[in-house]
Amino acid sequence: MRQLLLRKLVELIVVLFVVTLVSFLLLSLVPGGNPAVRMLGDQATPEAVAELRAELGLDDPLPTRYLRWLGDVLRGDLGRSIDLNQDVADVLREKVPITIELAALSIGIGVLFAVPLGIVSAWKAGTRLDKVITSTSFAVLSLPSFLIAIVLLILFAVRWKILPATPAWVPITEAPLTNLKNLILPVSAMAIGEIAVLTRVLRSDMIEVLQSNFIEAARAKGMSNRYILTRHALPASLTSMLTLIGLQIAGALTGAVIIEQIFGLPGLGRTLLLAISRRDLVLVQGMVLIVAASYVIVNSLVDLTYRMTDPRLRHG
Amino acid sequence: MAETVARTVPDVDVDESRDVANAGNGFGLMFWFGLCWFIIVVVLAVIGDFLPLKDPNRINPADKYLPVLSEGHLLGTDQLGRDMLARIVDGAQVSMFISFVTVVVGISIGGIIGTVVGYLGGWVETVTMALVNVMLSFPALLVLLGVIAMAGQSLKIIVIVFAILAIPAYIRFARASAITLKEQEWVAASEMMGAKRTRIIFRGLIPNVMITLITFGLLALGGVIVAEGVIAFLGVGVPKPQATWGSMISDGNQAFADDIIHIALVPAAVMFLTILSLNLVGDGLRRRLQVRESMI
Fold it and tell me: Is B134 close to A15, i.e. CB distance below 8 A?
């Protein structure tokens, strides 16, 4: 057990090191990434640029600059966005909650619907109801979230005009109801796919569990179906689904990029795209670093959790 | 998605012969429907240049926003009066090109590397798999956005990045199949008969690995089509005015303000049907070849 933890930790550190290296090189190797030119404008004389470069330490060898940058990052200083005239860390502090709210609501709603659907589908396996659930979820899996978003927009915002297409952002702390109403479409667009994939995985696990001996034994003891399903079968069928939920959390960080773009939500994804289009590379670098690092950390936590819960994988 | 499932579902999924809903032999109607649609798309993409279609990039403001089934424009026109049918076919060429190159590169390079390291084992395998894990730990969309921010936007760059991003998943998959395969008697028999390693790998293992890898590849084709759509929508896809399904949907999104929905709906429907058909075909083949879902 300790050996596994240690190995996972080493792996995580290596990957995080690569993440920082890639994010660092992203800014250092790009021609347009020369911050001295950006700060002084296109009209600056080569001498002025050279002077500022020396002042900023840009002429030092790469490894020196990498270590200095890494030191700053570890102290929480991600640099300053020239275009927004704001510290990258502050930009992130403002944008991260929006993306997290979107991702958390989508996955929460996904689970809320997937559990009953998966149970019913497995319990009634082979019946018409199961076939409807299974084939619907199969079809939905062929619908990427941005297509769902487009269809929802067409129906609710263009045709019926019930909900706004790209509402102005209101933080949940200021006006919770407006905030939630504006999130109905974006969250649905992400949650529908979650429901489909989670239902499929839960059904598949549960069918296997329902055929095992301990369920047979529970039945023989005369327990009610409801009791067997919720107390015996469900907990035993959750492994794959929980793992998948963890990965979906990591995936939602990048999945939110497109949803935010479609619905004009000012979260991490949209900010990143704006930064890319303005070639605000300091901001791009900071965001890539933070998003990639969280993704990697969540992924390792998920991996570790299911290795620890599943005895068959504990020594793997 | 394919990659997600690979890492998530530990080996606990259903033995499909016991799964009543999936019982029955043969491919079933839906498989054939999927295959037909996919073949139509591929054929249209291949012969598109020789069809009597309008110029997909010809702008004609007088004819803008024509609805579906208009005279002379079967699928209507977009906000610049460009013929939607011609643009769908033109976009199919881009989608099919990107996805086939990505999957073929992934299958061939990833398949060979994965089979070789799976068969050889030892430190070669350890080092390769560590690298693969590092690559798979990166969120693909971010890598893509980062590269495009640096290298600029072009079809060539997009295809290269997609292909490189695809390889690790195939390595992992091929290695898993190779490890199972090398335990079989015929491998031991060939080794005893003095067959060279290269012969065992290239004549024995790789053809077998490829069968399952192609099933995975079919499902992955759909994933690449989605990825193209996503980056086109984000405005970092194949440069305009080249039509792609993703860029057409993105154009259509802007027309919602004028209450026009067919510009987004037509390419969205085509994309959905194509991904669905690939999933149907891939799923049918997977069942026939008895590849477990958890492996993919």
Answer: yes
Total domain count, chain A: 2
A21 and A109 share a domain? no
What mean pLDDT is reported for chain B? Answer: 82
ipTM of the complex: 0.81
Query: Which phi and psi (to 5°) does residue B290 adopt?
Result: 55, 40
Question: Inter-chain contact B268–A150, Cβ cutoff 8 Å?
Answer: yes
pLDDT in the model for residue B268: 93
Distance CA B223, CA B2 (A): 8
Residues of the domain holding A58: 2-88
Gyration radius (Cα) of chain B, Å: 22
Q: Are B107 and B170 in contact (CB under 8 A)?
A: yes
Q: Which of A33, A67, A88 is the last residue of a domain?
A: A88
Question: Which of A239, A257, A284 is opposite residue B234, by nearest beta carbon?
Answer: A257
How much is the mean pLDDT over chain A? 84
Instruction: Compute, in degrees rounded to 10, the torsion defined by CA atoms B190, B196, B202, B207.
Output: 0
Residue partners of A277: CB distance under 8 A and separation at least 6: B235
What length does chain A have? 316
In this structure, are A308 and A188 located in the same domain?
yes
Based on the fold, state whether residues A17 and A101 are members of the same structural domain.
Answer: no
Domain with residue A245: its CATH number is 1.10.3720.10
